[in-house]
Amino acid sequence: QVQLVESGGGLVQPGGSLRLSCAASGFTFSRHAMSWYRQAPGKERALVASITGNFGITNYADSVKGRFTISRDNGKNTVSLQMNSLRPEDTAVYYCNAQGRYIIWGQGTQVTVSS
Fold it and tell me: What is the C-alpha to C-alpha distance for residues 96 and 52, in angstroms, rounded to an integer?
């Protein structure tokens, strides 16, 4: 079964950190680019960060550069998003995405940044 399962969301205070993880199964993980998207209430889903398959080339939205880090482990079929210096505007549902032979979305995990 082709699927992505996210974990690690939650409530954090401004300035805090969270680490999101996404476990992949059912497809050749290393041949898929992996990304994190987010969707805030009333807004469109937007790319946060991406990482290519074998070479691990990363790309970030301007709003998260220097604060977020995407990484992947092709041996464990996982992709992670380390989020530091979180701001209230980072509040959103975060989705894991795979693109390659398949285009796959996870179910999403809520991140809330609030005092």
Answer: 14
pLDDT digits (tens, 9 = 90+) for 46-85: 999 999 998 999 999 999 999 999 999 999 999 999 999 9
Q: How far apart are CA 63 and CA 10, in angstroms?
A: 20
Res. 102 pLDDT band, cuts 50 70 90: confident
Asked if 57 and 35 count as a contact pair (C-beta separation under 8 A), the reply is no
Distance CA(21)–CA(36), nearest Å, equals 10
| Nearest C-alpha neighbor of 14 from the set 63, 83, 81 | 83
75's tokens: 């041996």
Identify the residue whose tokens are 């092709």.
74
Average pLDDT score over residue span 23-42? 96
Give the span between the Cα atoms of 7 and 76, in whole angstroms: 15
- CA–CA separation, 86 and 111 (whole Å): 10
Reported as type and span, the H/E element at residue 115 is: none
| Spatial separation of the C-alpha atoms in residues 106 and 115, rounded to whole Å | 28
